User: What shape does this take?
Amino acid sequence: MATAGKVIKCRAAVAWEPNAPLMMEEIEVAPPQEGEIRIKIVATGVCHTDLYHLFEGKDKRGFPTVLGHEGAGVVESVGPGVTDFKPGDKVIPLFISQCGECRFCKCPKTNLCDRNWTSNNHNIMSDPTTRLTCRGQPILQFMGTSTFSEYTVMNQIAVAKIQDDAPLDRVCLLGCGIATGYGAAVNTAGVTPGSVCAVFGLGAVGLAAVMGCKNAGASRIFAVDINEKKSEKAKVFGATDFLNPKAYNKPISEVLAEMTNGGVDFSLECVGNTEVMRSALESCVKGWGVSVMVGWTDVKDFSARPIQLISGKTWKGSLFGGFKSKDSVPKLVQDYMSGKIKLDEFITHKMSLEQVNDAINLMKTGECIRSILNISK
Assistant: This one.
């Protein structure tokens, strides 16, 4: 392409500081270096983790930054040493890398990678190294990605090449939320046929967890949320029951215990709230119940009574649904194309990059499941 090897000037939504609206800016995107790929972003979802960094984490060392980590696009150019990608390839940027060489990548028990930004910088949620600048200063790449920009630069170990016929304005959701929730059920929890499940929080991640429970063969799936409007949407993805904790004068764990002869086999917390995490654990049956923390948070401690675990329950966490990123995302795209998993049903709004603050407000107020921003053609 004509832009290969040159600095590209393009539009991006920059978060200059915490707790403030994003600003549309012209930024400079440097050419890819050794092992890197420059990607033209076509579409991106707006994920709750973007809001978490902006409104909850609020570590000033993580700003200024370009948010967005649930995108899809086309390779514009590649740096030296890149052999698996070429200009024109359709790709999904990954916030969790897979180098294939570290002890974590070689271990089948985990999807972590020693070369990921999370290894040393989880508090600022980005690597200090960036290829983006604006007004003469470096702009951090949120979660190593920055999809609220027309162009971004990624290391090849954090990019998945996908099939040419995949619609980028839908499969972008597999870059975070849908893979996270779905995998938390089928991989991390290991939901079994005939089991009883409860999913707490019915945003995109929670609804994807419901879909995972359904596809794994669960016989009963309780969808739990304080927003009654989420009830019908949950049924689309396979929920059999809807519970609003505010409708009861006792803890929701007690309600579930009464309805399920002592508790559910599997529970998944998809909010990122430490109190809800405890409720999810307490909703599990003793002896074999498994509860999975899925919602991202790192600002509060979590707690529970030791007897919860001594009695035989398991409490575990899930990052990106336990999927090894580069290996799994192309397969998830295939699963969508063949009808095994849903994506279209998560999308409630389609907007332009300039409307990013509107999309953020829709998520803050619970009025959307997923908003897709169309970044470039």
User: Anything to note?
Assistant: The mean pLDDT is 94.
